[in-house]
């Protein structure tokens, strides 16, 4: 991440004052507090791609996850894929594993409807808004091997560092979402 995008290089561990914060971002912090999930938070300018997040990972001491919102051709099955940021995504590779041919990026309106997230801010935290489980979570096995992971708090102007174990053992059960482990090679 370019240094001019970093608003404040301080890592915070508490709920921010709500000045200038959206309600959807504040909901994430309140939920993490309710669940007793500690986190580190970094504020920065808007970032919409994993490449733009370079530097955030270093400050947070993590490898940033790439979060992709996908669907089948009929737009009847939706997936949130968490994978290492440096891996290349190959639709065919994932389609085979989940037995869903012709995956593509889901339209923005479904992202907003199901996860209450805009493009560029896709995050596992959005599952807290998917009360009817429209979105299935897929996690690359390498993400699960990391002690910590990084994600946005439903906005792309902040990033969080959470313990992977807290995500899988506290957050996901609370929001009633299971996950499926996938193995992506990400090679040509």
The CATH architecture classification is Alpha-Beta Complex
Question: Shape, please?
Answer: globular
Supply the number of helical segments: 6
- Give the total of beta strands: 9
Which segments are poorly predicted (pLDDT under 50) over 5 or more consecutive residues?
none
CATH topology (fold) name = YbaK protein
The order of strands across the largest sheet is 5-3-4-6-9
The total tally of domains equals 1
What is the H-and-E element order?
EHEHEEHEHEHEEHE
Instruction: Characterize the biggest β-sheet.
Output: 5 strands, mixed
Q: How much helix, percentage-wise, in residues?
A: 25-40%
Task: Kindly name the structural category.
Answer: alpha+beta
Q: Write out the CATH superfamily name.
A: YbaK/aminoacyl-tRNA synthetase-associated domain
